[in-house]
Amino acid sequence: MRNIYVVTHPEATHHVERLVGGWYDSRLTPAGIRAAGSIAEALRSRIPEDAKVEVISSDLQRTRRTADEMATVFGVEPIEDDRLRERSYGEAEGRPQEWLDQRFVPPPAIGDRMGHDVGVPGAETTRTVARRVYTAMEVILRRPCEHQIIVTHGGTLTFVVAYWIGMPIESLGHVNFRVSSGSITTLREDDYFHGHQLVSLGDTRHLNT
Fold first, then answer.
1. Residue 173's CATH number
2. Is 194 exposed, middle or buried (0-12, 13-18, 19+ CB in 10 A)?
3. Alpha helix segments (H runs only) across 10-95
C-alpha cells in the first residue's frame, strides 16, 4: 500500500506582507515555523515507527523549511524538486498583491482556459503548470516507497491531486482543489485493486492543538 501525504507550506512572509508569491522565494514566518512542527508531529503519529519514509519538496525556501521539520522527525534527507513549485507569476512576483490585481486578466468562462494569458509577462499558463507537476508526480510514483510526504504550495496541490485521480491535463481548466496553508491531504493506493483514493483533503486539525 502506498500512502502520500501532501503538505501545503504554512504561513510565509509574502502572506503577511501582501506580496505576490509564485516563485518569489519568501520564508516561513515564526508562526509558519511553529505550524511546520505541528505538521511533522501529526505525520509522525500517523506513520508507523518502522516504515520507510521519503520527504520530497519544492525547492523554494518556504517549502524547504517546512520539509526540514518532516525530515528531522523521520531522520531522512529531503529530496528537492523544482517542478513542485507554485505557479510562476513572472514580473508580478515579489510585488504588492495590488500590483497584480490591477493587471490580472481572469480566464474566460468558456474557451481556452488552459492556455490563457493572465496579462503579466513571464507568468505560467495553467497548462504549463499542470505539465511540470504531472511530470514530477510520474517520477515520484516510480519510487517504491510506502510513505511519501510531498511538501508543496496551495496552488500546486490541485495538480498533484488531479494527477493522482487520473484526470487528463486538458480537462483541468475548471478544476480547483482549494485548501488552507499548512494542510495535509492524504492519498492512498491499495495493494489489491490499485485504486487511487483521496482519503482526506486539506486537513488542518493539527493546527488547532
1. 3.40.50.1240
2. exposed
3. 13-16, 30-46, 61-74
Confidence (pTM) = 0.96
Specify the number of domains making up the chain. 1
Expressed as residue numbers, the domain containing 65 is 2-208
pLDDT digits (tens, 9 = 90+) for 37-60: 999 999 999 999 999 999 999 999
CA nearest neighbour of 63 among 31, 30, 33: 33
Copy the grid coordinates of residue 38: 505541528
Give me the sign of the Cα torsion angle 87, 88, 93, 96: negative
Nearest by Cα to 130 from 118, 141, 138, 120: 138
From residue 121, give the alpha-carbon distance in Å to each of 49, 89, 108, 126, 152. 48, 8, 19, 15, 24
